[in-house]
Amino acid sequence: MLRLYHQPLCPFSRKIRLVLREKNLAAELVEIEPWRREASFLELNAAAEVPVLVDDDAVVVDSAAICDHLHETHPEPDLLGETQAQRDETRRLVAWFDVKFRREVTDLLWGEKLLRRLKRNGTPSSEALRAGAANIRGHLAYIGYLYEDRRWLAGDVMTLADLTAAAHISVLDYLGDVPWETSSAARDWYAKVKSRPAFRPLLMDRITSIKPPVHYDDLDF
Amino acid sequence: MLRLYHQPLCPFSRKIRLVLREKNLAAELVEIEPWRREASFLELNAAAEVPVLVDDDAVVVDSAAICDHLHETHPEPDLLGETQAQRDETRRLVAWFDVKFRREVTDLLWGEKLLRRLKRNGTPSSEALRAGAANIRGHLAYIGYLYEDRRWLAGDVMTLADLTAAAHISVLDYLGDVPWETSSAARDWYAKVKSRPAFRPLLMDRITSIKPPVHYDDLDF
Fold first, then answer.
1. Residue A65 parent element (H or E)
2. What pLDDT is recorded for position B179?
3. Which residues of chain A lie closer than 8 angstroms to B49, CB-CB?
4. Where are the domains of chain B?
5. d(CA B65, CA B12)
6. Which residue of chain B is at minimal alpha-carbon distance from A89?
7. A61: which chain B residues are within 8 Å (Cβ-Cβ)?
8. Alpha-carbon span B76 to A211, nearest angstrom
9. Residue B46 near chain A (CB below 8 Å)
């Protein structure tokens, strides 16, 4: 029995929800507000962060560790790719989005706009918002550049790179922060990932304080 | 033939140097200043970051991807642990140091003091330095807490968790930023990692603009 502690609009939680669905694994979803630092949750994760996966007796902390855990316990379908070169490329892009994109875009837009609001932690920094809005354009162009030569971000098969990138992009899209008009190739790629059945539950999540733009759950946006 | 593009005082580069040595793999080391964005290096890594590993025809980018690549191409010795629970714990701690510790300590101290100087990018933020100096105490206490019950950070065997933590700590120790007096257990753990033969080359690195404190390369500090 799998149980995932998550936040609906957390990109790292979303990535695991996508991985679970792509691997055809059912999991009980428990929504948590980790910043409340409730004792029962701190016992699961001293870092007080989601996602956390409970797999019978195992408590698996951190989205990268959860991906590796699921890869080892449920190897099929493989979301990394068959050849060593393909797996290297998948992982390069996973790090690109989870580290670089996160630092240059997600933290600046989602972190300032949404996370601050949820944590009731002051007002967004306009400097951060401006930097995030500028940076996302370069990243969309890079997605477009990759997609023009490939069927998916890391090559000819759908991999964890697509799920990672789409998990980040999806929360920014919810906030209306993705300038789709700047890259039609990036838009085409996202429309393709968004159309996967695994994506559907994510597109149905809503939080009460912020409504997504009308195109958010439109598969032919 | 392996070639590693690295920076001597970059924690992520150091981690890979430790992994290579622990796996008894020889690699040619190429020192690079990635912030110069030289065209030949950007061709290897569009993100303009070290470490980058070249393994014959393969170009492997990002320290986590390099660890996975080396784990798959040279499985022995395994640096993750034998059981699933051990591997999960190793990876939890790898993420703890590479993500949380990096954000709360490394970026604030090493990033402000050293990286800014190397990049000739302004003066350190005193707010960041204060926050980093406060945060490292909690992390040292956590290392001590783990080590009091275990032979190594993630359990009874030396793993990638120890190498990751020690790679970060080692650059902060070079800068004289580790308040060892606050946790004797953390100091004992670090003395143990530091004594491994794999660590020796790291302790011999010097940069011209900053000298390390006298205890830096002392194994019985």
1. helix A63-73
2. 98
3. 100
4. 2-73, 84-204
5. 11
6. B60
7. 88, 92, 95
8. 51
9. yes
Are the beta carbons of A100 and B47 separated by less than 8 Å?
Answer: yes
- Chain B contact probe: residue of A99, A153, A159 with most B CBs at under 10 A: A99
Q: Can you give B25-46 as a three-state secondary structure string? A: CCEEEEECCHHHCCHHHHHHCC
Residue B121 burial class via C-beta count within 10 angstroms: exposed 0-12, middle 13-18, buried 19 and up: exposed
CATH assignment, A84-204: 1.20.1050.10
Nearest-Cα distance to chain A for B201, in Å, is 27
| Closest to A97 in 3D by CA, of A45, A128, A147, A140 | A140
Neighbours of B165 (CB within 10 A): 28
A&B contacts, CB < 8 Å: 73
pLDDT for the residue numbered A220: 84
Sequence-ordered strand ranges (E) for chain A:
2-6, 27-31, 52-55, 58-61
How many angstroms separate the CA atoms of A94 and B169, rounded? Answer: 25
CA A147, CA A143: separation in Å to the nearest integer? 6
What's the pLDDT at B208? 84
Between chains, do A92 and B65 touch, taking CB under 8 Å as contact?
yes
Residue B85: list chain A partners with CB under 8 A: 57-58
The tens digit of pLDDT for each residue in A151-160 reads 999 999 999 9
Question: CA B51 to CA B38: how far, in whole Å?
Answer: 15
Contact B95/A at CB under 8 A: yes
CB contact under 8 A, B65 and A47: no
Q: For the domain B2-73, what is the CATH code?
A: 3.40.30.10
- Distant-in-sequence, close-in-space partners of B127: CB < 8 Å, separation ≥ 6: none
Q: Write down the pLDDT at residue A190.
A: 98
The ipTM value here is 0.94
E strand spans, A7-110: 27-31, 52-55, 58-61
Average pLDDT over residues A32-36: 95
Mean pLDDT of the region B191-203: 97
Which residues does chain B have within 8 Å of residue A59's beta carbon, measured at their own beta carbons? Answer: 88
